[in-house]
Amino acid sequence: MKIGLIGTGNMGGAILRGYTSAHPNEAGNCYIYDLNAEAAEKLQALTGAAIVVSIAEVVQNADLTIIAVKPYHYDNVLPLIADCDLSGKTIMTIAAGITIDKVEKTLGNDTPIIRIMPNTPAGVLAGMTAVWQNGKVDKAVFGSVMELLSSFGKAIEIDDEEQVHAVIGASGSSPAYAYMFIDAIAKASEKEGLRYEDALVFAAQSVMGAAKMVMESGSDPTSLRIAVCSPNGTTIEAVHKLQENGFERCVEEAVHAAAERSREMSRE
Fold this sequence. Notes:
By secondary structure, this protein is an alpha/beta fold. The protein is built from 12 helices and 8 strands.
């Protein structure tokens, strides 16, 4: 599958780096375009993709064109794509607030469109991506897209675009919550006598390990937490303090706030 990328920022770059890392022989079938020539050249150096000079050239060369620009650029980019021959082409969008319906209004209802919501850990090949489509996408193409998205983490297809708001709260925004949690642990541990740099490694590695346990142990998070908490031990004291201070409530409100902002953006 030939892949075109419009916009070579963090997310678009992560997708292409993941794909070319998993499929190094496919670099010659990747085409990138960015108004920022320096950014395009950096991604070319990392992936081996070919730089082209226009959006039209990206669409012309690619089977799958990925639009990886900020939401406010879509009004400029979509008409340029609409001017191209889209026969046999599939379009993928990334931006928050840009629904498939909005894209179809410019590109047409018959255009195969896939919308994804990845997150920034894609940059270290540990991303989480939600995927959905408008029903016009060829099954073989969609299979190749799922393989592409799995090259930089995990991907799950959802069947209702309204679920994207919950996805943003659960994975799109949640790396920020995790960074805050790790930093808070490290700063508190510094007060208890560790060097911050060492405490950061202790905290980050432990959070990564805990996530891996959730993904691979077959146990649910509550069972795993209980297993760590020995009666009258240190962990149960910490857990009680978190619960006492409304830890779960704070997280719930954060996820809800992210989801609500996503809904607002879709209506704007």
